[in-house]
Specification:
Elements: E1 4-11, H1 16-34, E2 39-47, E3 50-58, H2 65-76, E4 91-97, H3 101-107, E5 123-130, H4 139-156, E6 163-176, E7 179-192, H5 198-214, E8 223-226, H6 236-239, E9 242-243, H7 248-251, H8 272-289, E10 295-302, E11 311-315, H9 324-334, H10 339-345, H11 377-384
Length: 387
């Protein structure tokens, strides 16, 4: 048991990297909506007044990619050129080809040397859960996401009229005896109109964003920094180039646990970077929900074209109520780990991915987030001998 500080960050949907994640996933969703068997690997890049989408798509869908790009930008809130990009007038460039047949034959069931659907690539994926929050997520990233969601909410609901789409949050939690105790530091940075004073901005963000989310965990020693550079007028793609897949820690657990390195957005669920990371979270969350551990990290690893994972590892950081060896056996027995089983049991071939592309892929108890279900609690407890 130890005392320490831990920090996680989140970014709003108007952050340049998140623009790109959402556009990539909006294209994926349109493919899956028209053709659930679509194979998609799409990347997006943005800079001032420009969107570039490039990648590999094999689909029966009839796509109008520029229309998808502009619709996504409008929904995010990029409706003024002063924000760095404007949905009606921006340039949209598209460079898309079909998926390599060498990859396809290893991923398609009934083709290649192995007749069962294999993994779309090699690699390792991690899932994590802990009992710090009701969502079974680490507290720093959960609060960071709630703050950025609130920033977007007060902008879109016109509670704060002068905010732009770009913004960030960061939360530092003080842990005592390995348990979260209080908020040490909060950082909020939000794009704003030129004429707004820092005093007005700080008062509004403290009262309408920070206090509603964090008040119960703050004390007189909590440090709060709101737009600490003093000015954040130039934002979005004007201030910073955006790329798909550059916020992988924001997308997952805020730096708690390990990360296999693969991004999610723009990838259809035959790609284990995405689907196996969801499966690993599903396993870890159920183990913690069943009170078999206070913390749990799952690693799955794959070889391209091979269905069975090459390894399944369970780590409970000394908090397990049963052995990690037994937990590994239960994970393999009761959860989907082959690509096809993951697709079927988590119902992943649906147009659900645009909503995952901002505010985290985990810790969201929404119907479409099937990997957040805790439907294995009873069988895990029974087979662990705890019932």
């Amino acid at each position: 048991m130890k005392n320490y500080l831990f920090t996680s960050e989140s970014v709003t949907e108007g952050h340049p990297d998140k623009i790109c994640d959402q556009i990539s996933d909006a294209i994926l969703d349109e493919c899956l909506k028209q053709d659930p068997q679509s194979r998609v690997g799409i990347e997006t890049c943005t800079k001032t007044g420009m969107i570039l989408t490039a990648g590999e798509i094999t689909t029966q869908a009839n796509l109008n990619i520029p229309k998808i790009v502009r619709k996504t930008l409008k929904e995010i809130g990029y409706t003024k050129s002063s924000y760095g990009i404007e949905y009606k007038t921006c340039a949209v460039m598209v460079q898309v080809e079909e998926q390599s047949p060498d990859i396809s034959q290893g991923v398609t069931a009934g083709e290649g040397e192995y007749k069962e659907q294999g993994a779309g690539d090699q690699g390792m994926m991690f899932g994590y859960a802990c009992n710090e929050t009701k969502e079974l997520m680490p507290l720093p990233i959960q609060l960071a996401h709630e703050l950025t969601k609130k920033l977007a909410s007060v902008r879109k609901n016109r509670e704060i009229l002068y905010l732009g789409p770009d913004g960030k949050s960061q939360v530092t939690i003080e842990y005592e005896n390995d348990k979260p105790k209080r908020i040490e530091t909060i950082v909020i940075s939000s794009q704003h109109a030129e004429e707004i004073s820092q005093e007005t901005l700080k008062k509004d963000i403290l009262g309408k964003v920070i206090n509603p989310i964090c008040e119960n965990l703050m004390d007189e020693n909590t440090k709060i920094y709101i737009n600490p550079t003093g000015k954040f007028v130039r934002g979005g793609p004007h201030a910073d180039t955006g790329l798909t897949g550059r916020k992988i820690i924001v997308d997952t657990y805020g730096g708690v646990g390990r990360h296999g390195g693969g991004a999610f957005s723009g990838k259809d669920p035959t790609k284990v970077d995405r689907s196996a990371a969801y499966a690993a979270r599903y396993i870890a969350k159920n183990i913690v929900a069943a009170e078999l551990a206070d913390k749990c990290e799952i690693q799955l690893a794959y070889a391209i074209g091979i269905a069975e994972p090459v390894s399944i590892n369970v780590e409970t950081f000394g908090t397990g109520k049963i052995s990690e060896e037994l937990l590994s056996k239960l994970a393999k027995k009761h959860f989907p780990t082959k690509p096809q089983d993951i697709l079927e049991q988590l119902n992943l071939k649906r147009p659900i991915y645009r909503k995952t592309a901002s505010y985290g892929h985990f810790g969201r108890n929404e119907e479409d987030f099937t990997w957040e279900k805790t439907d294995k609690i009873e069988i895990l407890k029974r087979e662990a001998g705890l019932n």
